[in-house]
Amino acid sequence: MRLSSFFTLVAATLLLTSCNESRIKKTSLVPLPVEMKLQTGHFRLKPDARITWSGGAGAAITSGQLAAMLQPATGYHLATAGGTDGDIRLLIDATTTWKKEEYLLEVRRKSITLTAGTAEGLFRGTQTLMQLLPPEICSDDPAGNVKWRIPCVRITDYPRFGWRGMHLDVSRHFFDKEFVKKYIDILAMHKINVFHWHLVDDQGWRIEIKKYPKLTEIGAWRVDREEMPWDSREPQQPGEKATYGGFYTQDDIREIVDYAAERYITVVPEIEMPAHVGSALAACPEYSCTDGPFTVPPGGVWPITDIYCAGKDETFAFLEDVLTEVMDLFPSEYIHIGGDEADKKEWKRCPDCQTRIRTEGLKDEHELQSYFIRRIERFLVDNGRKLIGWDEILQGGLAPEATVMSWQGFEGGIKAATSGHRAVMAPVSHCYFNVYQGDPATEPESFRGQLTLRKVYSFEPVPPELSPEESEYIIGAQGCLWTEYITNGATAEYMILPRLTALSEVVWTPAGQRSWEGFNHRLTKMMKRFDEAGFNYSRGSCRVDMSASFDEGSNSILLEMISEQPSPEIRYTTDGTDPQADSPRYRKALKMDESATVRAAIFDNGKMIGSISQKKISINKATGRQVNYNIPISDRYRGQGNNTLVNGIRGTGDFNDGHWQGFEGTDMDVVIDLGKEADITTVSSSFMAAVGSWIFLPRSVEYSFSVDGLQFTPLETVNTGIDPAEQGNMTETYSSSFPAVTARYVRIVARGLITCPPLHAGAGNKAWLFCDEIAVE
Ligand code: ACM
Ligand code: ZN
């Protein structure tokens, strides 16, 4: 390291630590800039302010954009002109070496100067400038009596990664052009520079292709089964018309690509192959192995066996035609070709595919997939483009110049980087924004699983096992929004905000400068900006998460409350009523030795922020007692071990929350030993359905009792009676009450579905049975 750069580094660190937290909080910039020096005083934006530009046409364009961004809320029509003497000065400086997208923003009392090497850098700087103004600047309407003051500051800023992406699946549900533009606005505000547009999937083909009009005439439409659970929707029936869907014309696409380009966002189209193409095959069955016929599936498809035939040359001719039109529409360097989740069952029995394997000297169907991707890559490279695909493109050998989008975890990206290929990190664990961000009980129905804001913020895209040289191949990261359960724009906004806000800092700000607490403070103001802009966003992170553990020593339950807010004022009740500003304040774990419904929320200045969380604690004769399993639990879902079913803590709506026990392809048969004889009058047990995860309610639950543990007397069989097709995501409690009996042992047998029912995506495969909490009174 040269001495001068060492001093720069020390100086930068000092600058950052010298501007204290409260001042950083006051500006509340997200993502946090690389270097920021706050000074005293303000610049006051007035109606007669002039914006001047110099250094080329790019600066003129950005000046116009800035004036346009400032206009709606201020009502000012700021004049722009060439020159360097304006109140706000935009300057492209080609004489200095700038990092890509770097800008320097200097706000003084009398003028603002924004300098960069390119218009792109200037544009990123304008986003920072907008955030330095009061949040009302984000409003589309005149904001009235606001003083448009900008604190004096000097900011030097540039991104950590060149690929800062956000994805949107428009196949599972269609989102119109206006919403896509709003989505791009949200991306721009977060300095995101790649919009990954998932245009093709089983449930809809969304891009007009002139040479194959059937792709949208047929492939863009499916039958409307929106009232049914995603994973158990009946396919289109003979004579039934497909009316649900939509697509973008090529003019629409050009309009959106231009709209994004004006914000220096590259649109990377994804044209899935060889799988996730049910919509394409419904239109063009001749490119499958079996020739169809197919219909566009209105819901989940699993496993994905109807895929393009890799043996027919016609398939490749078709795909090259499609990609030719795609490349005409999208100037992006990268074309995403999907590549994920292809089940090779049809390839195994297709004569054409098998001939291809022989003539090309391939070992198996994995190598056939690799052949497929390499052949497409050759075509893209010959046309001056680069191929990117999901990490399954590693199977059977990666195409020579391909870039991997690592979604199943970090491994795909690591494999790519260690073999000299680029990778974009989008692991499910940190980047899939289609899952719950708070307690499923109070969140909109989502894909299974949970990803909290805090976990997104903790994301580190460069795995520690990579050397510095290998790390260079990690070109960035992105969030993904799959829309199986997202039917409208407002919900899409809710799912990405504020998780995208957290991710934007992960991909922009130097890792060492990130701080969860600092981010959390700044987020409050960011949310005010969202309010002004009319963005729907989640306050999930303002919720209290209650985690309970059974304390064997005291035979009681310890209830701990945490939240994503720094030093939250948590108030709670234990009688099931809503907490108020004067309810008891939570300070340390509560010791519970009676049944209770605990409700808690965060308060600020006497007002509840966010929503109420609830946990039911049930202390009863079974609590903490021995459970004997006549049928073993699955190793994958053991909950918290052997007393999970009787630890007094109910599982939430998330089957993965550590409180549920799972039985795979079997019934449940457990005996609870109460330790001594007791008079009992009620037994209850709770089960979950999460049909998308192959979890179904039991068909019936049989209760019986015994004094010796050998001879059991039946009490009641409860028939549960909810059709699997109607179950979706729910929890149900089955209770049986009877005149008092004396018993030491209580047996609960729940009859499961054993296999997933017909029409379900997993039809014929093992079904899950999930139980949590058995109570005996
Ligand atoms: C994926 O989620 N199948 C890329
Ligand atoms: Zn085939």
Topology of this structure?
Elements (H helix, E strand, L loop, with lengths): L2 H16 L2 H7 L7 E10 L5 E5 L2 H18 L4 E4 L5 E5 L10 E5 L4 E5 L2 H14 L16 E9 L5 E7 L7 H13 L4 E5 L1 E2 L2 E2 L8 H4 L3 E2 L21 E2 L4 H13 L3 E8 L4 H6 L29 H17 L4 E5 L6 H5 L1 H9 L5 H18 L3 E5 L12 E4 L4 H8 L4 E3 L2 H4 L3 E2 L10 E4 L2 H5 L10 H4 L2 E6 L9 H8 L2 H10 L7 H18 L10 E8 L4 E8 L5 E5 L16 E3 L3 E9 L2 E11 L8 E4 L31 E4 L3 E23 L9 E7 L6 E7 L9 E23 L16 E9 L1
Parallel strand pairs: 2-3, 2-4, 4-6, 8-9, 8-21, 9-14, 14-15, 15-16, 16-17, 17-18, 18-21, 19-20
Antiparallel strand pairs: 1-7, 5-6, 5-7, 10-11, 12-13, 22-23, 23-25, 24-26, 26-27, 28-30, 29-34, 30-33, 30-34, 31-32, 31-33
Helix pairs in contact: 2-19, 3-4, 5-7, 9-12
The structure holds acetamide (ACM) and zinc ion.
